[in-house]
Amino acid sequence: MWKSRVIWIATIALILGIISAFYFASARLDDRQIRISANPWVGFTPLIYAQEKGWLEQTQFKFLWQVDLSENSRLYERGLAQGFTATQYEMLHFKDYSHIKPVFLIDRSAGADAILSNFTLEQLRQASQPINVYLELGSLNEDFFHAFVEENKLDHLRFTFINSDQKVIAQIMPSDAPMVAISYAPYVSELTRHGFINIASTKTLRSFFVIDALFVDERFLIGRQDEYRDLQNIFNRAKDQLHQDSREYYQVVRGYLEGQSYEEFMATTQQIAWVSPDNSAPLIRQLKMQNVPTNNLLP
Question: Among 243, 214, 240, 241, which residue's Cα sits nearest to residue 229?
C-alpha cells in the first residue's frame, strides 16, 4: 500500500513537471513572438498573401490587421505590438519613437495615396463656404493634406476637419457642399465609385514623398537579424507571385481588399514603386533628411 502511494505521488509529480516544463517553454516561445500591426495597403499585401499561404507559421511573426492608421501607435504604446508596417509619417507622429527603427523598405507611394473631392480643384479655389475634410488626424493623412494646401496655395480657404477612419471615409457620399476626402488604396476605389474625383495624389505632389516600411522596436532586433531577413525573403517571394500569377494572388488576398475588383487592385499596384537595391538610395536620403534612422535597414 505504501509503495503504491509513493508510485502514485511520483507519477503525479512527473506529470506536473511535464506540464510545467511545457508551460514555461510555451511562455518563452511567446516572449520571442513579434507582433506587427498592419493595414491592407497595396504594398503590404505580400504579407497577407504569405500569411494566408501559411508561410509565416514557422516564424516568430504574428500580424495584427486593422484599419485605423493611429491604431499602430496605440498597440505599440500599450505593448501589444512590437512593430508595424507604415509610412515614415506614422512613425514621426508617435509620442515616443526613440526606439523605433525601419528594418526594410517596402514601397514608395506613386499615386495610391489620393485626395478626392466632389468639386474640381478650380471649383474648390472659388469656394466661399467651409469645406469639410474627412481624414485620419495625427497620421499621414494630415501631413498629406497640409502639403496639398501649401503646394496649391489654398491657405485662403476655410477647412473643417472631420476625424474618421478609412472604412467610414469610404462610405461618405457627395453632397452639394464642397467636400474633401484623404484616402489610399484600397479605399479610394469605393470613393471613386461614389462619384468623387481625384484632385491630387502622391504622383502629382512634387514636395511630398511617402515611403512605406516595416518598423520595429530596436529592442526586438538585437540578435534577431536573421529572422527579419527571412521575413524579407518571404515578402519578396510573395511579391514575385504577384508578378507571376496576379489572378491567383488576388484570389488569396481579396478578403482584405474592401471589395476591390481584380482590375481595381491591379491598377493600384501600378500606383506604387516597389523598393529594390537599385532604387533605394534616394529613399534612404529622404528618410535621413526627415531624421528617420536608417542604420538598421536590411539591404
Answer: 214
Residue in this structure with the C-alpha cell 489572378, named with its chain if needed: 247
The sign of the dihedral angle between the CA atoms of 124, 127, 129, 130 is positive
Taken in order of first residue, the domains within the chain and their CATH numbers are 29-110+209-289 (3.40.190.10), 113-201 (3.40.190)
Where is 202: in which H helix or E strand? none
In this prediction the pTM is 0.86
Which element (helix H / strand E) includes 263? helix 262-269
- Condensed to tens digits (0 to 9), the pLDDT of residues 238-292 reads 999 999 999 999 999 999 999 999 999 999 999 999 999 999 999 999 999 999 9
Contacts of 143 (CB under 8 A, 6+ apart): 89, 208
Q: Tell me the C-alpha distance between 214 and 282, whole Å.
A: 18
The rounded distance, in Å, linking the Cα atoms of 275 and 294 is 15
pLDDT digits (tens, 9 = 90+) for 127-169: 999 999 999 999 999 999 999 999 999 999 999 999 999 999 9
C-alpha grid cell for residue 283?
Answer: 529613399
What count of other Cβ atoms lies within 10 Å of the Cβ of residue 116? 25
The DSSP bridge partners found for residue 217 are 100
